[in-house]
Amino acid sequence: MPTGFTIGFGDAEPQRTTDAPWARSFARRRRNRHGRGLRGPLLLPQLPGSRTRLERFEDLVAEAAERLEELWGARVSAIAFSVALVPGRKSLQRAEAAGRGVPLGTTVTASPRRAASVTVYRRPVEELSDSPVDLPDIVHDVVVELVAELLAMAPEDVDPGYGRWPRRHK
């Protein structure tokens, strides 16, 4: 018996009903017309391929900060680390006025009202990387440079592993 028709007994004519698959709206159908639509996510959330680029970059910054915290303890644990996509207009104007390139991050010194903070800009740092293999070393070096600026020290003194990434882009 075809879907979408009802059988009547007696004098009634067969009538079309509205619960035929083609009569339902697209939103009410669970899958597409031929039943080949996606049934769920392609990757489970716990698999590494399901993480976004921002989440992976945040992980790299957190790993670099943890390494520095192991070396310096409370001096680095008091610093708040964050990631932003790109620098703001004011940061770009200050860098241009000083004759420098695009900043890779910024630091804010501690005050009585706020803790010290380090912000790493994701896109400029990713642009330095020729391959995804170089990115962890670049992120580590950038975080070390920013923490060294906050602590008023040389980057080599902050972390002996500084400089693993060859600086051919500077």
Question: Proportion of β residues?
Answer: 5-15%
Number of strands: 3
CATH topology of the domain at 52-158: Zincin-like
Low-confidence residue ranges = none
The percentage helix is 25-40%
General shape: globular
> What average pLDDT do the residues reach?
82
How far the N terminus sits from the C terminus, by CA atoms, comes to 75 Å
By DSSP (H or I, 4+ residues per run), the number of helices equals 6
Radius of gyration: 28 Å
Q: Structural class, from helix and strand content?
A: mainly alpha
Helices and strands, in order, run as: HHEHEEHHH
Question: Biggest β-sheet: count, sense, barrel?
Answer: 3 strands, mixed
The CATH architecture term of the domain at 52-158 is 2-Layer Sandwich
Main sheet: strand order: 1-3-2
CATH class bucket of the domain at 52-158: Alpha Beta
Structure explained in plain terms:
- This is Metallopeptidase family protein.
- InterPro entries: Zincin_1, Zincin_1_sf.
- This protein has a domain at 52-158: Zincin-like (2-Layer Sandwich), CATH 3.30.2010.
- The chain is 36% helix and 8% strand.
- It has six helices and three strands, in the order ααβαββααα.
- Strands 1-3-2 form a three-stranded mixed β-sheet.
- A hairpin with an 8-residue loop joins strand 2 and strand 3 (117-121).
- Helix 1 (53-72) packs across helix 5 (135-151).
- The model has no long low-confidence stretch (mean pLDDT 82).
Provide keyphrases for this structure.
mainly alpha; Zincin-like; 36% helix; 8% strand; globular; Zincin_1_sf; Zincin_1; Metallopeptidase family protein
